[in-house]
Amino acid sequence: MMKSVDVLNLDHVSKSFPATGQGGEPIQILEDVSLSIQRATSTAITGQSGSGKSTLLQISAGLLSADTGNIKFEGKDLPGMNDEQRSRLRSRSMGFIFQNSLLLDDFTALENVKISAMIAQSSEHVALKKALDMLKLVGLGDRLDHKSDQLSGGERQRVAIARALVNEPSVIFADEPTGSLDEHNAQLVEDLLFSLVEDREVALMLITHNLNFAGRCNLIYRLHNRHVEVRS
Questions:
Q1: CA distance linking residue 173 with residue 64, whole number of Å
Q2: Alpha carbon separation from 151 to 10, 30, 42, 54, 104 (Å, rounded)
Q3: Helix (H, G, I), strand (E, B), or coil: what is residue 135?
Q4: Is the pLDDT of residue 1 over 50?
Q5: Are 30 and 14 in contact (CB under 8 A)?
Q6: What is the DSSP string of 92-108?
Q7: Rounded CA separation 29/225 (Å)
Q8: Is 21 exposed, middle or buried (0-12, 13-18, 19+ CB in 10 A)?
Q9: How far apart are CA 124 and CA 128, in angstroms?
Q10: Within the chain, where are the H helices?
Q11: Less Cβ around it within 10 Å: N or C end of the chain?
Q12: What is the pTM of this model?
């Protein structure tokens, strides 16, 4: 097992959004949040709806700017990068899984994964091999040519996991990845994610309402009143 090292560091991060009405006070979502995400480690972010979990994920991935504080990804200053640099970093070093798989409907499972590798500048030949390997890894070697509407919900999420892994990221950002699945498929996806943390030594940042799912992580943070509290 690789020695755990920090991949992502948030240092005193705060974020607010403008008020919806004229003259209103800005809505503070995050205040003085500091946390670290380590390689080969799973970290859960829990909290009530509207507590800022998804906002925290978006800031961590450079999809949203913080008002104050600093974010370092693999030792690099994320806010100091321009849009192109952040986009390149995301395509090569970050994987994303959402509640809905967000697959391209007109593409096969293989094409959905391959295109992610090509966006990260892999040649078509290399991207094809990577996509094949990842789909076999998640147990979909026999579903390569099936389009999204020919796959079950659990299979679509496994394609999404393969897509998130195809560029060998340092971190997988997973936002309610089992929220739309039945219990059986949710368990399969959970088991797969944790096996990937261990076997491929990727970091997992998990956003979830499911405390049983969160409880399987190495570290749990709870977002409450704009702050993070360590649960375990």
A1: 14
A2: 38, 38, 28, 27, 12
A3: helix
A4: no
A5: yes
A6: HHEEEE-SS----TTSB
A7: 8
A8: exposed
A9: 6
A10: 53-60, 83-93, 109-119, 124-137, 153-165, 183-199, 211-214
A11: N
A12: 0.93
The rounded distance, in Å, linking the Cα atoms of 1 and 40 is 8
The residue assigned the tokens 């094809």 is 128
Using alpha carbons, list the distances in angstroms from residue 52 to 27, 33, 78, 136, 165.
11, 11, 20, 35, 26
For 135-182, the pLDDT digits (tens) are 999 999 999 999 999 999 999 999 999 999 999 999 999 999 999 999
Specify the pLDDT at position 232.
Answer: 54
In contact, 7 and 74? CB cutoff 8 Å = yes
Dist CA 35 CA 15 (whole Å):
15
Handedness of CA 42, 48, 53, 54 (dihedral sign): positive
Rounded-to-integer distance, Cα 103 and Cα 109, Å: 8
Strands 219-224 and 227-230: antiparallel
**Structure tokens of 173?**
């950002």
Question: Domains in the chain, start-ordered, CATH in brackets?
Answer: 6-230 (3.40.50.300)
* CA neighbor of 119 nearest in space, from 63, 172, 166: 166
